[in-house]
C-alpha cells in the first residue's frame, strides 16, 4: 500500500514539473472527473477546477462555486485557419481569447474578472488534485462507471481505492513506450492509457453505419463546430465509438485506415428553440450564443449581436471560405438593420457631442453663498467648517459618493440622457471620442475636490494641534472613501491634496500628527500612499475586489485621453500605457457592476442639502473664485489660486530662512 502511494506521489510530481503551458502540469486540472464528483470538491465561493467535458469529448469545462451554488461553464474553442498549412486554436468564455487554458485561468484569477455577465461568477481559489491524471483516467474513463456519492477525501487524497489492484494502477509495459500495440485491442478501449506519447490516433472501426444512422437529422440548422454549445440536445447523436476504437500512439504501427471527415466551418449563431426545452445538465446556459430579442437601444442590440456574429464572420483571416455556396448567408445591410429596428420599435439616434460644460456656476442657486459672493468668503468658510465638524467621516464620504455618481453618470442616468450619449454609463462615454467634454469636466471636479481639502487645512489658523486634528480627520475620510464607500475617484483627489507642496511643507503639522494621532500617520504612510501608487499604475484590478468599488480610479484614463503623458518613453512607460488601456476596457465592461455597487452603498441614505451642496462643483467654482471669476479661463484661475495657497501656507509656517 505504501509503495503504491509513493508511486502515485512520484507520478504526480513528474506531471507538475512539466511546462506551465501544458494543461496537465497544473493541479487544478482534474481530467475526466465527472460533474457530480467535481461539485463535491467545491466548498466555498470562488473555488474552481477544470475538467474534461463528458458530453463533448475534447472540450473543457470550468466548474466553480458562486453564491453557494455550483456552476459549470463550457470553455469555447475557436479555430482560426488563416492559411491551409496552419491552424490555431483559441479558448474563451465570452470576450477574452487565449492560446491555452492555463493563460485563461491566470487572467480570470489574477484580474478577478467575471466569468459571465449573467451569473457574475468570479474564481479565486483552485481545487488541486493529489493524484496523477493516470489514476483519474483509470477510475472515471470507464463508461460503465456510476457515481456512488464520493467524498472529498476519496478524490483529493492519493491512495489505492477499494477494488483496484496494484497491477491495474501500474503502467502496462505492453501498451506504453515504443512497443507495438496488441492487435487484439483494435476496436476495444483498454482500461489504462500511457501518458508517454501525445500522438494518440484512433484505430479503425470499419462497421457499416445502419440506415437509421445514415438518415439521422443534424442536431441544428447550422452545423456545430469547435466548442459551441449543443443547440438541440434532444436530437439523437452518433456514438463517438462508431468513429473508431481505442487510441493508439504514433509508434504503434497501425493507424486509422480512413481519414476522419473534414469538419464544416460554419459556427452556430443562435438558438431557435426556447431555453425551457433544453436540458439543463447537457447545456451550459450561461454561454449559449443567443442574441436577445429585446434591447432598449440600437447600441445595446448591436453590441450583443456583434459579440456573437464575430465568431461566424467568414473571412480569410478567421474561419476560411465556406466549402459550399448553399451554406453562405449574405451580410445584412445597414438600411435593412435600421428598417428592422424601426419595425421592432427601436430607432437609431445619433449620439450628441457635448461642447459646453455641464457646470453652470452663473445660474447656480446656492444655500450657502450670496448671489454676488467674493472669492473665499469668510462667512461661507466659517459655515463650512461647522458643517464638516458636525458630520462624521462616513456621512461625508457618502455625500461625496452621491455627487460623484451624478457627475460621472454612474447612477441616475435617464433613458433620454443615455440615448443622447449613445451608451448607458459615463464610464463608457469617457472611453469614446465624443466624451471629450465629460473628461474635461471630471478633471475640473477632481482638482476642485483637492483644492477644497487644501483650503480646509490652510484655513485652520489656530494652533498646530488644531491643524493636526484637521489633518487626522481628512486621513480618516480617505480611509472611508477607500474601504467603506469605494469611491476611488474622490479618494485619489484627497490623496492629491495631501501631497500638494503647500501641505507637504508643513513640518510642524505633520510632526504633531505623528505625536497626537499616530495611527493616522502610520495609515497614511503604510496603507494609503502605497495603495495610491498601485492605483496610478493601474494595478487595482488585481488588488481590489470588484464588489468593493463604486467609482473606479478613472484619473489616469481621462488624463491620457486628454493628451497628458503619464509615462516616460521607456519600456516601463509602454507597459503603463497598456495597463491604462486595459483598465479602460475593464471599467467600461463592468459599468453596470459599479452602478449596482453604488446603489447598494446609497440605499436608504438621506443626504443633508447643505453638506451635499458643499461638494457640488459649481459651489466650489463660486467659493474659490467668486461669482465673477468662476467662468474665467481655467489656466488663469488655477495659476492665481496656487499663488494664494502658497501665501496661506507661508503664513502658517514660515520658512526657516525667512524667520532668521
TrEMBL record:
Domain of life: Eukaryota
Compositionally biased region (Polar residues): 193-207
InterPro entries: Ras_GEF_dom_sf, RASGEF_cat_dom, RASGEF_cat_dom_sf, SH2, SH2-Ras-GEF_adapter, SH2_dom_sf, SH2_SHEP1/BCAR3/NSP1
Pfam families noted in UniProt: RasGEF, SH2
Protein name (record): SH2 domain-containing protein 3A isoform X1
Protein's organism: Microcaecilia unicolor
The Ras-GEF domain, residue ranges: 392-655
Residues in the signal sequence: none
One of the record's GO molecular function terms: phosphotyrosine residue binding
Gene3D superfamilies in UniProt: Ras guanine-nucleotide exchange factors catalytic domain (1.10.840.10), SH2 domain (3.30.505.10)
Keywords assigned: Guanine-nucleotide releasing factor, SH2 domain
Residue ranges of the region described as Disordered: 142-266
Protein's GO biological process: small GTPase-mediated signal transduction
Domain SH2 intervals: 28-127
